Amino acid sequence: MLFFQLISTLLYTAESTNGKDDCVKRFTNPKDKTSMVCVCNTQQCHTFPRVKSLSGDSAYFYETTASGLRFEKSEIKNNTKNEWDKMGFRLKVITTERFQEIIGFGGAMTDAAAINIDRLDNEELEEILLHSYFGDQGIEYNVIRIPIASCDFSTREYSYLNTPGDFSLNSFHLAEEDQWKIKFIRRAQKMARLPIKNFGSPWSAPAWMKTTGHMKGGGKLLEGEKYSKTYAEYFVRFIEDYTAQGIPIWGVTVQNEPSLGEDEKYGFQAMFFPPKDQSDFVANHLGPTIAKSKVANRTLIMIHDDFRGNLPEWADITLANPKTDDFVSGIAVHWYGDRDADPMKLTQTKEKHPRKFILGTEACTGPGIDLGSFSRGERYAEDIIEDLQHDVSGWVDWNLALDLQGGPNWVSNFVDSPIIVNHTAKEFYLQPMFYAMGHFSKFIKPGAKRVSIKMQKVKDVQGIAFINQDGTVAVVVQNKGDFGVKISIEDERGKQYRVTLQQRSINTLVYK
Ligand SMILES: *[C@@H]1O[C@H](CO)[C@@H](O)[C@H](O)[C@H]1NC(C)=O
Ligand SMILES: *[C@@H]1O[C@H](CO)[C@@H](O)[C@H](O)[C@H]1NC(C)=O
Ligand SMILES: *[C@@H]1O[C@H](CO)[C@@H](O)[C@H](O)[C@H]1NC(C)=O
């Protein structure tokens, strides 16, 4: 604690006059002038002070643009210039029409992420990286996903129960990798202003419990009471052991991407868990086992954790059993394939299961990394807006940090991440995807509600609005087009804020 206070005093209370809190721009692709990262090292890293008290008619407008602005802040007044009305577009926010409640935004503490943070090998720089995501002068994530044992973003294949036939879980133990994950999650929890919601997801049951005998490559959980019972206890042991280390587990998903495991030759750890089987497992084993654990009994269960294309059918089948329906709190969705699947599938799912929340639990761009790519940041913003417009309550990114190759990943399935670590240089890079996440996570807090907007159709412009519990309103507007757009953001109380959405920009307006 003392250490952290010292660091935060040294680094984050300094005035920005010397530039150490500003984005240190590095252009990363001579063929694409929009490719740029902000470089962070122990000397400097871009920080974002929290919004100070907003007075009656002023607002703050934050811009991230292809032309190189990053969270550029300006103060806007309720504005009355008449000429604007003729040339600008209008976006009307109706704060009295409210929809789904926000759970939050975050990323995954995979083995790869923890290894990359650890390899910085400098406690001060690790702290700066964690602060970028979780600190009050970072983008203030409040959700962390934790793989339960290994996934592809590990350096090896392992489970927590490696002794065949150990139905009493005598040999259950967390792995060496968990000690890194736990260390960094604890530090993230300490610096976060709001409680972090941690949730776990398994990629596969232990090899000996599967039809294939391997964690890699699909297959199903073996049939029979003792396998299902042991596997439910496996979840609870994970929850208990993390909780004992100071990391409460807010939720679990039953299985990461359960549809993939149908392919027995699948390229990494996977398990086929079709909806009817998942329903039985939750009703008869996972639900009751969690409910009767003194430590795990508050942990929420989420089903699906897979592509929206399988909705609403997979949720319908899983929740058809009223016992399962009672145990399940949420429906988790991944972004892969979103462009080929109608977002109305999310709305239909919410209409059919109104008591369940829908949470985005994984997203990434790829293949590999494309350092500084602005279009990858734009894709994040587009998808977040689309999901949240269709009843989704939050959006959780994949790996919190990757190396220059987009790994480590033991099957070479390299992808991109909002933070890329360069270990040899002892620096890390804030990519446009980081800013895209921040335009939401910084301003739309847990408990916020989406509110209605009425907007003239403007090509390439999309928006979304929320009201926080403290009454602040956050409007995120993205302009994907190659021209600036003047827009008047108004609400039912007579506020009017005129702003320009620069070409290819992501913008957040906050006011009270
Ligand atoms: C904002 O300006 C408009 C236009 O002049 C005015 O009608 C409205 O009352 C103002 N709203 C506030 C909250 O000051
Ligand atoms: C969970 O268990 C604790 C300890 O036995 C108990 O006090 C609490 O009421 C339980 N909570 C729920 C939600 O069942
Ligand atoms: C990483 O750091 C090394 C210096 O240690 C440098 O040569 C290299 O260009 C850096 N990589 C990138 C992608 O910036």
From TrEMBL:
Domain Glycosyl hydrolase family 30 TIM-barrel: 102-444
Keyword Hydrolase set for record: yes
Origin: domain of life: Eukaryota
Coiled coil: none
GO molecular function, a single term: hexosyltransferase activity
Reactions catalysed according to its record: a beta-D-glucosyl-(1<->1')-N-acylsphing-4-enine + H2O = an N-acylsphing-4-enine + D-glucose; an N-acyl-1-beta-D-glucosyl-15-methylhexadecasphing-4-enine + H2O = an N-acyl-15-methylhexadecasphing-4-enine + D-glucose; a beta-D-glucosylceramide + H2O = an N-acyl-sphingoid base + D-glucose
Record keyword Phosphoprotein present: no
Protein keywords: Glycosidase, Hydrolase, Lipid metabolism, Signal, Sphingolipid metabolism
Metabolic or biological pathway, per its Swiss-Prot or TrEMBL entry: Sphingolipid metabolism; Lipid metabolism; sphingolipid metabolism
The enzyme's E.C. designation: 3.2.1.45
An annotated GO cellular component: lysosome
Family according to the record: Belongs to the glycosyl hydrolase 30 family.
Protein name: Glucosylceramidase
Species name: Mesorhabditis belari
